[in-house]
């Protein structure tokens, strides 16, 4: 039950990410939005770390490298690539492509583990990637790659990073706050340098609050809740909840005025349906075991 509560909290926060990010990217460069995000996330992870009862212990450098790598790829890699994609292509399409990470996790399970029904998992994942192709091909002008090619590559890269994080985080003994705080601080430093190169014109008022919300909410608490859920309940049982994210986020984007063509809608149905099918299969497999 605790795992499902944490997973539901993560999904609720992640569902607002694309909508709020779209509004900020309309008037601010990616570098500044990302800097505010990482600042907000670092504050949340630092606060959680201070409230944690876990005592700090000395860790060998060789032992610490794996958690640092997982945290950096999962947090910095996922979010930076995702927001570059948001700025380079229609946000609603970038969001769908970035949320193919559950299908990538399914492919990893087929390749490296011994699932009960590999054929079913493979079929669901394959249909999901067909849906991605339809989303990409369903551009407003009936052409492939409505946005920049770099945007689509970044969206796929973001999905790969999140898939890697979801597979690895449950296998590490490191607590989520100790895993994510160093990565968020690295993100702050990198995006500060990135912003400085493009010039300082920091958002104020509502935009500042929204930028910090993206960091404290979807990035900070969202990642923390998801990491706790994976450690408590396993990736299969909480996956069904997590795969609701593309449904909720796509709905919010549609209500805000974003539109998909008929072809892209068909692709979105395949992506979301495949994610749910994969989640149900993996949850059933864990219950069976």
Automatic annotation (TrEMBL):
<feature type="transmembrane region" description="Helical">
    <location>
        <begin position="238"/>
        <end position="256"/>
    </location>
</feature>
<feature type="transmembrane region" description="Helical">
    <location>
        <begin position="96"/>
        <end position="112"/>
    </location>
</feature>
<feature type="transmembrane region" description="Helical">
    <location>
        <begin position="262"/>
        <end position="280"/>
    </location>
</feature>
<feature type="domain" description="EamA">
    <location>
        <begin position="150"/>
        <end position="278"/>
    </location>
</feature>
<keyword id="KW-1003">Cell membrane</keyword>
<feature type="transmembrane region" description="Helical">
    <location>
        <begin position="149"/>
        <end position="167"/>
    </location>
</feature>
<protein>
    <submittedName>
        <fullName>EamA-like transporter family</fullName>
    </submittedName>
</protein>
<feature type="domain" description="EamA">
    <location>
        <begin position="2"/>
        <end position="136"/>
    </location>
</feature>
<feature type="transmembrane region" description="Helical">
    <location>
        <begin position="208"/>
        <end position="226"/>
    </location>
</feature>
<feature type="transmembrane region" description="Helical">
    <location>
        <begin position="119"/>
        <end position="137"/>
    </location>
</feature>
<keyword id="KW-0472">Membrane</keyword>
<dbReference type="InterPro" id="IPR051258">
    <property type="entry name" value="Diverse_Substrate_Transporter"/>
</dbReference>
<dbReference type="InterPro" id="IPR000620">
    <property type="entry name" value="EamA_dom"/>
</dbReference>
<feature type="transmembrane region" description="Helical">
    <location>
        <begin position="34"/>
        <end position="52"/>
    </location>
</feature>
<dbReference type="GO" id="GO:0005886">
    <property type="term" value="C:plasma membrane"/>
</dbReference>
<dbReference type="Pfam" id="PF00892">
    <property type="entry name" value="EamA"/>
</dbReference>
<feature type="transmembrane region" description="Helical">
    <location>
        <begin position="179"/>
        <end position="196"/>
    </location>
</feature>
<dbReference type="InterPro" id="IPR037185">
    <property type="entry name" value="EmrE-like"/>
</dbReference>
<feature type="transmembrane region" description="Helical">
    <location>
        <begin position="64"/>
        <end position="84"/>
    </location>
</feature>
<keyword id="KW-1133">Transmembrane helix</keyword>
<keyword id="KW-0812">Transmembrane</keyword>
């Amino acid at each position: 039950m605790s795992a499902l509560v944490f997973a539901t909290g993560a999904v609720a926060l992640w569902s607002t990410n694309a909508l709020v990010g779209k509004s900020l990217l309309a008037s601010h460069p990616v570098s500044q939005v990302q800097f505010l995000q990482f600042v907000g996330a670092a504050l949340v992870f630092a606060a959680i770390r201070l409230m944690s009862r876990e005592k700090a212990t000395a860790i060998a450098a060789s032992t610490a490298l794996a958690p640092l790598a997982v945290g950096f790829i999962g947090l910095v890699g996922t979010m930076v690539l995702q927001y570059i994609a948001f700025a380079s292509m229609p946000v609603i399409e970038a969001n769908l492509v970035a949320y193919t990470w559950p299908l990538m996790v399914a492919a990893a399970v087929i390749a490296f583990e011994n699932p009960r029904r590999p054929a079913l998992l493979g079929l669901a994942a394959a249909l999901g990637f067909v849906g991605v192709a339809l989303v990409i091909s369903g551009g407003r002008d009936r052409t492939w790659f409505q946005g920049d090619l770099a945007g689509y590559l970044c969206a796929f890269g973001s999905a790969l990073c999140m898939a890697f994080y979801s597979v690895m985080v449950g296998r590490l003994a490191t607590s989520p706050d100790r895993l994510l705080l160093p990565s968020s601080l690295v993100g702050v430093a990198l995006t500060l340098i990135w912003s400085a190169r493009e010039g300082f014109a920091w958002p104020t008022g509502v935009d500042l609050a929204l930028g910090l919300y993206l960091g404290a909410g979807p990035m900070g608490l969202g990642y923390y809740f998801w990491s706790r859920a994976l450690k408590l309940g396993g990736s299969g049982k909480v996956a069904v909840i997590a795969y609701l994210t593309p449904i909720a986020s796509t709905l919010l984007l549609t209500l805000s005025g974003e539109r998909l063509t008929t072809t892209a809608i068909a692709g979105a149905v395949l992506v979301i349906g495949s994610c749910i099918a994969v989640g149900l299969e993996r949850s059933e497999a864990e219950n069976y075991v």
